[in-house]
Amino acid sequence: MVRHRFRVFHCTQYIRHSSAPLYTPEPDCCHELLGHIPLLADPGFAHFSQELGLQSLGASDEEVQKLATCYFFTVEFGLCRQDGELRAYGAGLLSSFGELQVRQLSNSRPAPPQTTLSSSPKITSPFSLLQPSPQHVLSPNAKKLPFDPVSTCNQECLITTYQDVYFYNESFEEAKEQMR
Fold first, then answer.
1. Are residues 1 and 71 in contact, defined by beta-carbon separation less than 8 angstroms?
2. Could you list the active site residues?
3. Left, alpha or beta for 7 (phi > 0: left; psi -120 to 50: alpha)?
């Protein structure tokens, strides 16, 4: 995170396997190019990212962990209000079609698609594109809370499944002010 202070962004060279295009628990080129890069071109978002990096300077390990959790629920999985509606802006969301558009067969919490590798790869998934999901991030049933660094920093970050809760701000400027 400290690199954000200097407006430096490190990018990966990994790309998700074609048998699992909807979700990968690791950042890949799709995640970087579809999620982070376009947002870093927005001055408000770039300042917010820089603010997170500035906050990490001289912070204790515990404070850095709390900042990393806030980073996770904003820069990676954040929502922001635009024209009165919540919109996904976090890179983890923008690069995960599965989490944005997931359709499921059961009422259980959605999980990333399970894949099988064979000579002709196919996706084996518990989801159906025929039924609306009660839990994808922008559905009315997904748990969405206002971003508050004091409470958000204590939320568990899920990296192998879709999130249980999402946090939103009215603007990047508001998020930046809250992090001070």
1. yes
2. 31, 36, 76, 95
3. left
Judge if pTM exceeds 0.85: no
Q: What is the pLDDT of residues 130-164, one digit of tens each?
A: 344 445 777 777 889 999 999 999 999 988 778 88
Taken in order 21, 1, 46, 137, the sign of the CA dihedral is positive
The whole-angstrom separation of Cα 112 and Cα 161 is 6
d(Cα 58, Cα 112) in Å, to the nearest integer?
Answer: 37
SS (H, E, C) 82-143: ECCEEEECCHHHHCCHHHHHCCECCCCCCCCCEEECCCCCEEECCECCCCCCCCCCCCCCCE
Structure tokens at 113: 């698609």
The pair of three-digit structure tokens given for residue 102, joined into one six-digit string: 């997931």
141 and 107 in contact (C-beta within 8 Å)?
no
What sign results for the dihedral spanned by CA atoms 130, 103, 93, 31?
negative
Q: Which of 110, 109, 113, 75 is nearest to 94 (CA)?
A: 75
Grade residue 125 by pLDDT with cuts at 50, 70 and 90: very low
